[in-house]
Amino acid sequence: MLATSPAFKENAARALADPGLQKALANTRPAFPARRAAAVAALPEFEQLREVGRDIKNHTLANLDFYLETFAANVERAGGKVHWCSTADEARAAVLEICRKAGAKTVTKGKSMISEELGINDHLEQNGITPVETDLGEYIIQLRREPPSHIIAPAFHLNREDWEESFRASHTDLPADRVFSDRRDILAEARGKLRQRFLAADVGITGANFLIAETGSSVIVTNEGNGDLTQTLPRVHIALASIEKVVPTLEDACTLLRLLARSATGQDMSVYTTFSTGSRRPDDLDGPGEYHVVLLDNGRSAMLGTEFQDMLRCIRCAACLNHCPVYFTVGGHAYGWVYPGPMGSVLTPGLIGVDKAGHLPNASTFCGRCESVCPVKIPLPKLMRHWREREFERHLTPPTTRAGLRLWGWFARRPGAYRLATQILARGLGWLGQRRGRFTSLPLAGGWTAGRDLPAPEGETFFARYAREQRAGRA
């Protein structure tokens, strides 16, 4: 997937001017936070569970080599095969080789953000293999040739009329009088088309929410059942997963599953939670004849032992997206790559470089809601600050920004000069703006006034007020 993260500001401007996107965001904004809040309120031990989840992930990352080797050994013991891939190119090659050996013409896919990171659909199409997305949201955006805009609700940016328009453009046998009045109509139309594709597929590709070292199992959660059909009907099952998805035991996976659904969709558990272990055994009623796990690094091991290691705890629940004021203003596509929102603002620079994704850590109000709702307590604002520091150290920030920070730094190291300058500035701006009470334009503040008014200062400065309150014994 081509990264347009360097164009974040232009992407965001287009998003703000898109009435359809703004309608979709407004319609969905309240839903996820409300559901999560209700689910958390119904589980008194949720905060304790967050600490346990954090500790499980920290322990695993500290011993990642051991658990990955244990996982691989148990996959092989169960009749599967693990493909170790350092880069996206290696992972794409591994998937293509498996499909070619199977003689695959059609591949069904369950939800997998790793497949988006790898650009698997385009790669398969270029090599004569037809990929078919089976998740409802992924299916519609595949018809529209669009990337996901959300990591669990890929068609988050669409309205009902967009779905109907896409079906009418792609399903040529659709009757003209067919009505799509609610989600059930949309689901029925997609199911009618996908049922045949499930049965015809030679290979099924899924993601993995967790990999269990103890058993060599992969775990996938869905609400539509498409993950089960993608894993069990084709002759070959490929599970795509990044290395940090491994957890030590079944018990650990179940603990994290209790956090995942509540944080993601406000459910106690997803409708389907499927554990896959190896290929079909002689007495199994169904299942694939071959089971492959493609394990992807693609920059993640370079984050181990650094200030960004905490990001590898992420379980992809999207709670940070669902509570982010920036995400809900510009949508997911503005972030310009696979992972949007606060988690993407930290993960994307680590995977494609801060030179390409430096705008993302700056696209934050630092309100802290992302960290407060993260089920494994990732300190996302702190990690974004670290990326800002890296960006500044590498001279990637604009010259005007660097000059402004140097000027502020000079004053910040000289408290007397800082107080004097703020008093002069506050009094000068207060006098100039006393008639209207605001500024619609101001030299050196065009980045602010281009989108909003700047209130004129009133009264004394904070330092003066604080000193006065101290003298009065009130501070």
TrEMBL record:
Signal peptide: none annotated. InterPro entries: 4Fe4S_Fe-S-bd, 4Fe4S_Fe_S_CS, FTHF_cligase-like_sf, LUD_dom, LutB/LldF, NagB/RpiA_transferase-like. SUPFAM superfamilies: alpha-helical ferredoxin, NagB/RpiA/CoA transferase-like. Residues 305-333 form the 4Fe-4S ferredoxin-type domain. Keywords: 4Fe-4S, Iron, Iron-sulfur, Metal-binding. One of its GO terms (biological process) is lactate metabolic process. It comes from the Bacteria. GO terms for molecular function: 4 iron, 4 sulfur cluster binding; metal ion binding. PANTHER family: LACTATE UTILIZATION PROTEIN B. This is Lactate utilization protein.
